[in-house]
UniProtKB/TrEMBL annotation:
Keyword Protein transport annotated: no
GO biological process: division septum assembly
Reported cofactor(s): Mg(2+)
GN (gene name): engB
Matching InterPro entries: G_ENGB_dom, GTP-bd, GTP-bd_ribosome_bio_YsxC, P-loop_NTPase
The protein, known as: Probable GTP-binding protein EngB
Assigned keywords, A-Z: Cell cycle, Cell division, GTP-binding, Magnesium, Metal-binding, Nucleotide-binding, Septation
Domain of life the protein comes from: Bacteria
Membrane-spanning intervals of the chain: none
Functional summary from the UniProt entry: Necessary for normal cell division and for the maintenance of normal septation.
Amino acid sequence: MQAKNPAIGLCQQATFLISAAKVDQCPDDQGYEVAFAGRSNAGKSSALNTLTHASLARTSKTPGRTQLLNFFRLDEERRLVDLPGYGYAKVPIPLKLHWQKHLEAYLGSRESLRGLMLMMDIRHPLTEFDRMMLDWSGASGMPMHILLTKADKLAFGAAKTTLLKVQQEIRKGWGEHVSIQLFSAPKRIGVEDAQAVLGHWLGLMGGEAEVEQVEE
């Protein structure tokens, strides 16, 4: 019988810690940190809320509302980070440049960052922003796990075909350190797989998570 993932209970205790507009406003850089990134309207807030069983991240029908680095405390040495959304056309250019500057500063300097969860809308994967994040992950050696969100919007066969296609392109362009899965917040597709990745990155489980599930 598979042991229960300790990250599940820990994530259920998640509470808001602080919002930071700049890197020097972030919490002390120690312990374990997992960041959530995604193009605006890719389902990042819904995924974060589903994985924590809480309404931590504000969801909105207006993409691009997340303008700060939002930190959520799990325990004394573990945190989740909701990164600013990207790519929404109505966001002013100066604000986009601000986000990019401070997001790059956070990603490039944070010693406690152990992994990056990247949300991609399964209907629009591998956008320019997604590829930029993959490039950064590859250059820095930072583990990345992709959630192909809104998987319930496609029939299972079509969703699996998209998963395999994106998986092949990622392996060809960015190597083996990136893992990927199907995910749906309302249907709870792939929630346990994603929580397993969190458990490993947060130092709660040994070995490596088996996350590239394509069979039903």
